[in-house]
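Technical note accompanying the year-one report. For the benefit of new consortium partners, we illustrate the data format agreed upon in the data management plan: each record pairs a sequence with a structure-token string. No post-processing was applied to the example shown here.
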Amino acid sequence: MCSNSATRLPPASGLTAKGSAVQLCTELGRSSFTVLLCCLLGMLVVWGTAEAQQVTASSATPVNLTTRPVSPSGSQLGSYYHQLEARLVSEGNLRQDRRPRGVRFSADDLASNFMQIAMRSEYSLRGGSISSGGQASPLRRWVQPVRLGVRFGASVDAGQQRADLATIRQVAHRLETASGHAVALTANSPNFHVLIVSDAERSGLGPLLRQLVPGISRAAVNAVTGMGRNTFCMAVAVPNRDQSQGYDQAIAIVRAEHPPLMRQSCIEEELAQGMGLANDSPRVRPSIFNDDEEFGVLTRHDELLLQMLYHPSLQPGMAPYQVERLLPAIARQVAARG
């Protein structure tokens, strides 16, 4: 069952750190939309490997966000995002139809699109830095139930918190229904942390990120704390040392300055990416996992990709060639269900 629990930053006590050695394989997802000058930004996804290392809890003091800044929606950045959303909607983007009429896709399309979205990464993490990758990746998904914990910066008022929790609860239910995998809000030992923060709060998240995910790489922390205004949201996922055990932890960052449609789009896309659909591709349609910003919600096509990702014939850690030979039958089965 989903609870109404949420936490204000800084975090409450009781957080525990994973003290075992892990293989640091970090993903960063960046969802972006057309900016006012029509500059297109792609999804930033990092899949890197490093030698197993001993991870201990960070001794840093959690970031202090108790001072209440200007309301995010009334800030200069908030004004920018409101103008941007209005521009996108006027151009026919950020569509809310999950089953768009006149856009057909076949089982073959689903199989091909799955390989693009679930089995590739746009960027790689090497030696603590981010570089262009475009490389094939092993299958990534959760084995343990997904326990969503929501944390708000002090800038997010009570009314907005209630609205965001309602949205996240609905998205969690949609992801669980589509994937068949347990996804729920909880206040007890979350493993997928959703942080809704203002720009000023986000820039100081380093200590909290290290506390929530001990062993998170410096590159991942810097990517979060250094987000420019055209990076609208981000997801970070850390797999278990044993790839067959899937993800251990994930974090999604959503800007508090976003207006309703962009906020909804960020929540839906980043939570879905944190489930394992980590890449973007301009060739995939109709989908939120696309660089053209046409859809602002998960489409039925995207839900079918989630069904495929969590199909019992597939397992975390499988290589692309192993997945590809099973996909035609899986795609036909999923497509037949509609």
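Partners are asked to follow this layout when depositing records. The chain has a mean pLDDT of 80.
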